[in-house]
Protein: RagB/SusD family nutrient uptake outer membrane protein
Amino acid sequence: MRNLKYLSIFLALIAIVACSDLEEVPVGRLSPDGLVQSPADVQTLINGAIGNMATERYWGRKLSLPIMLRSDMVSIGDLGTPGRRQEVNNFSMGADNGMVTALWPKAYEVIAGTNEAIASAATLDADPAQLDPVTAQAHFFRAYTYYHLVRLFGDIPYLDAPVLDVDAALTISKTSAAEVYSNIIADLEEAKLNLPATQPSRALPSKGTAAAYLASVYLTLGDYQKAYDEAKYVIDNEGEFGLVLEADYQDLFNSGVKSNEPLLTLDFNGFSDGDTGRDYAPALTGIRANERGNIGGGWSVAVPTINVYNAWDGRDYRKAVSLDTTGIFNGVEEPFTKFPDFDSRNIQSAYIAKYTRFVGATGTGNGRASSLDYNLMRYAEVLLIAAEALNEINPGTIEAEGYVNRVRERARNGNGSDFPANVTSGMSQADFRDMVLEERRWELAFEFKRWYDIKRRQLGMEAFGLGGLEPQPSFDPARDYLFPLPFDELDRNPNLAPNNPGY
Structure:
């Protein structure tokens, strides 16, 4: 069984080079006989786990696309796209959906890499000042991965050590979502304690990153005091953590700008080699056959509904940054109302621009060879978490208004307009809550946050009802706040049964 112990490591190491800011260590140094001999070797294992995140079966398509489509901001543009994607969007997915069956094992590969790093670090007789900050990264990324899984699936297997026995692995049962959250919090607390205040790359977490994710987790759980406390800790130490709001909102989505707003990024480095290190978001969100940008156009898969365009105030600079309203076809610039449909493969709607406008791509490939850094958590979100949480524990404060106003002030920088105006003082708690959720909708548009907001606030009937931005008659609140567990996992391990309600 010895080789089984190292299987997850080698799977993770395959993808090390996908993270552009992380140092590659030759795989040959990490043979089973002398696997980990120093904190640098632990870092290599962690780099491999991060690299697994930048693959098609995780962030590339199987995680980022479903949580984007599941929101009320994005629908299917290409009616010829595979049915598994349309099922996610239409709330008709089953346990055999190919997005789910591919995502699940890849997520556990990421977790396996972090578990191996933590276990290997425990065997080293190294200076804690050198080892603990590295091991803390593994705790952080394990928490990060489980945080996605528990929000998507609910009760899931929780593994916190390398799996040494195949037979034992096939009898693992589910852990309650409450216990998974407790473990996530413990990992993030460990990370917050031992991570440095700053990192050479935002692709690696800092002390502030761990606190920001603690704030997000507590917000999800409805523990608003702790959510506020963690967000306030980040805000009070923004100078130490090197955090600012980027002056120009557009620069957050420009591969040529290294911003100090993100607390965590997933970086692509301008090459496309198989599914490792290949960026799919430009292709999935781009306008089919669009000649602008010299990336070969997109696939028109994930497209905002026309209701999103109509509901978004045209004075908001963030709308101009986030949406493309024209394309170039046969050398002629056309408005979206005249986009050629290419046999129902383009819809007449504004398209997502955040991942196609400044990709830094060298050639075509539909933008898959991008150099984009994806903002997994940025400072503006921390400010909005603080505002939302403070409103729940102490409504009507100038402090909470101020956090939203900082975000709005940056938005006004883009076009010199007076929109969006500062928050109107004296709002009721309910009105302020609705306002912050709307602010998150526009500030974080298409950044893979909206579905989780809908889920944690139980907004599905409103979001997908007849008056919502994306009416979906199949939405069922008793079923659709959770994804189904993959059927093949349940076939291999009946202890995971029953599936989530409705599947």
Observations:
- Residues 1-33 have pLDDT under 50 and may be disordered.
